[in-house]
Amino acid sequence: MKKLLLLFVSVLFFNVSAQKKGKDYSNILKSKNIYEINAFLRDAHPDDPRRSVLKPRVMEMMTQYIKDAHPADQKVKDMQEMLALLKRRPSTKISFDEMNAIIKQKQIAKYKAELAAKQPTVVYTPSTTQNAFVINTSANVAVPNAEAEEFNMLMAVNPVEHKNKTVKILNSLFDNDPNSKESIVLIKNNSDCNIIVRMEGVGTTKYRLAVPAHDESTIVIAKGQYLFTSLVCGAQYASQKTIEKAIMVALGTSAAQ
User: Which UniProt keywords apply (predicted)?
Assistant: First the structure.
C-alpha cells in the first residue's frame, strides 16, 4: 500500500512539474503521438515510472513508421536517428555541445562536397511572376513578392563568391579557438516558403541570409548581440540572440510535429 501511495505521489509531482513548464503530460500514457511521447521522455524526471512504459512504446512506433514509410519520406532519417539515440540512452535529449558537434560535422561534410563539386548543392531557378508570391520553379515553393527580387539576388552567387564563402565557413567550422571574433549561424527553414533572415547587430553590423524552403543555409558573422527577423510564409518572426558560439536557428514548423 505504501508503495502504491508513493508511486501515486511521484506521478502527481511529475505532472505538476511538467505543467509548471507549460506542458501538460497528465494524459501522456494514452498518447499515440511519437513526437509528444518523445518530448515527454526529454522533459520527464529520470525516475518517472511512466518512462518504463513509454520508451519501449515509442521505439516500437518509430520502428513501425520506418517499416511502413514511403522510400522518399524525409522523416525516416529523423526517426532512425531518434531510434538510435533511444537504444543508447533514456531519451533523445542531447546536450548543447553534442548538438553543436553533430551540426558541425554535417556542415563540414556538406561544404566539402560543395567544394569538390565546385558548385552549390542547391540550384535556384527564379521566376518573373507578378502574383502576391513569386514561385521557385525548382522547388514549387514561394517567397513574398516584396522580397522576391532580394531573395533571387542573394541566391544568385557566382562560383568564385560561392567558393570563397564555402572556404570561410569551413575555416570557421574547424576553428575551435574560443577567442575567435566570428561564429557560425545555421538557419534551418522548416516552412513551405523561401525566406530571408536578417541579423541586425550594433551600429551598421547587418547580415542577410536567403534560405530555401525545407532547406538550410549557413553564415559566418561577428560575435555579439543581434535581432533576428524574417517573414515566414507571411508570419513575422523576431528574436534577440547573443552569438558567442555556433548556433542553429529553426524557423517554421513541420506539420507532423
Answer: Signal
Closest to 91 measured CA to CA, from 129, 145, 133, 55: 55
List of long-range contacts for 30-39, beta carbons under 8 Å, 24+ apart = 32/61, 34/58, 34/61, 34/62, 34/65, 34/79, 35/256, 35/257, 37/61, 38/82, 38/91, 38/92
Which pTM value belongs to this model?
0.52
User: How far apart, in whole angstroms, are the C-alpha atoms of residue 43 and residue 233?
Assistant: 30
- Asked whether residue 62 falls in the same domain as residue 155, the answer is no
Q: Are residues 108 and 43 in the same domain?
A: no
Long-range contact set of residues 135-138: C-beta below 8 Å, sequence gap at least 24 = 136/194, 136/212, 136/213
The residue range of the domain holding 67 is 2-88
**With 90 as the cut, is the pLDDT of residue 41 above it?**
yes
Q: What is the pLDDT of residues 133-147, one digit of tens each?
A: 444 444 445 555 668
What pLDDT score does 156 carry?
A: 77
Instruction: List the Cα angle 37/43/47 in 5-degree steps.
Output: 95
Give how many domains the chain has, as a whole number. 2
Confidence of residue 94 (pLDDT cuts 50, 70, 90): confident
The last residue of a domain, from among 40, 67, 88: 88
Residues 170 and 230 placed together within one structural domain of the fold: yes
